[in-house]
Amino acid sequence: MKQFDFTRDYHSYANTHEVKVTHFDLALAISFEQKHLSGHVNLAIEHQTENLAKQLILDTRDLTIDRIENSQGQALAYQVDDADNVLGSRLVIDLIADDMWVKINYKTSPQAEGLQWLTPAQTSGKKLPYLFSQSQPINARSWIPLQDSPKARVTFNAKIMSPHGMRVVMSAENDADVELNGVFTFRMAEPIPTHLMAIACGDLAFKTIGKRTGVYTEPSMLDACISEFEDTEKMVEIAESLLGPYRWGRYDMIVLPPSFPFGGMENPRLAFMTPTLIAGDKSLVSTVAHELAHSWTGNLVSNATWRDLWLNEGFTTYFTNRIVEAVYGREMAELEVVLEYGRLLEEFKTMPVEKQTVTANVQEEDPNNAFDRFTYDKASMFVHDLERRLGRTDFDKFLITYVQHFSFKAITTEDFIAYAKETLLVDHSDKINETELLEWIHGVGMPSWFVPPTSKSLDKVITSQQQWLVNGNANELEASSWSVHHWQYFLTTLPELLTQAQLQDLDDSFNLTLSKNAEIAFAWFTVAVRNNYEAALPAVDSYLKEIGRGKFVRPLYKSLNDAGYTDLAKEIYQIARSGYHPSIVGMLDNIVKL
Length: 594
Ligand SMILES: [Zn+2]
Prior knowledge:
By secondary structure, the protein is an alpha+beta fold. The chain is 36% helix and 19% strand. A 6-stranded mixed β-sheet has the order 4-7-2-1-10-12, with no helix packed on it. A 5-stranded mixed β-sheet has the order 14-15-16-18-17. Strands 8-9-13-11 form a 4-stranded antiparallel β-sheet, with no helix packed on it. The protein is globular. The two termini are 36 Å apart.
């Protein structure tokens, strides 16, 4: 097997060991007509060695560079290499002596992978266009030339020009009362990993939830979002009691148009959220808890490379559960853990054995491949196991010290192991040993001692499900008190093959094809498509044209293909494609071959 240097970030060209960008000032104008950002970035650099670095190497993707100069205004020679499919283009700048600042004039491409430009017709209000970014994992480089590595933390200031009457927000300090006069200034004084760079511009209104929390979104959606997310302030307080002080000032959220490709994105001070969370009954708000938990695990303590993503996602998935338990009770928390474990078991079926580890060995792949159920759910099962072994009080002590110890640092899996050897394995040698720790981190499958999570209320769902499979009358299912979680569990654990009569029975009784809950609809469509229940296909068609969240659309297109509806998948995709975020279109192109 090929040996990799695990301290190296294989997804960045940057020469951070020689010279580091520590801060930048960004000045960009947004043009909806040209679909580009144009202006300049002024990078503050720090040489890392006695012998001053001769070159500054940056990451870029599809940027047009106009001129590069130093602080004296002297032009600097530079070269943009041919683009690599995954990494983009290396930008090599020749430095003069002890340059401290490098100014790059540039503009982005209308196809920039990290930016989506929506027409007014693609928004709720239909009046103004909309722009928003998605930088994780390596798309910040498609809108800012920088050292695009989680290891290279930066502070920044920004001045952004927009059309008059529109609001610009960033992953920085946002002033909700600012005049919408076309000029916005921002400051992020805490150093952040570059995948947390974020911007949005649209017809955005704001309302507060609590003293540190609030929501930005299109005016027509504002009230619904505020009531859905009304527990956010309480979540911040609970998270602080578990993990220590919240270090980012405000915790605001922006609820984006349905093409936002993720459930949420933990951009500091301004988490980005999909509108598919607005279910009307707070049933999907654990995503709010998840993005909030990242304020500690992910944004304070960060993965150093995409191989180490589990340190962000595993701890955060665990924490989400603790926040949910404190706000909504133990039963809801248990339901979610069982569902997470179910998702993981599903992925065990298709993931090659050597990839069934919490570490994501994507050194020679697209880092998007690191986002699987192993980095999230297997890693969170590891953290739950630690909690079980140590007991909650001792485990909580470990966690808070761990977060404090590595605050504002990027760490590798090996850094975590070294830290655990000095703390966990010494203080709790009777509860966990090194072999067990390493089995969790490097082992494939689940460790032999692993006890699967259970939930009494989901056990009841299975009992009802089995009765229905025998008796065949869905009206007799005791489903009136079921939450989204019960429905997800019921639908995802159904046998592979069902009869048309069974599907019709379920649909007639519970109107599943017309479900307004994005999670229930998705779980139902998966079952319906797999069993060629064609009454659901028109609803699948509109769902795929309306929603661009990767978690839903990727598997649905796959299901359509697998069930023999490749022509239908193509027909839908042909129309829907331009509405999806550029960062997921590449993946979808591989599923639906137009
Ligand atoms: Zn996450």
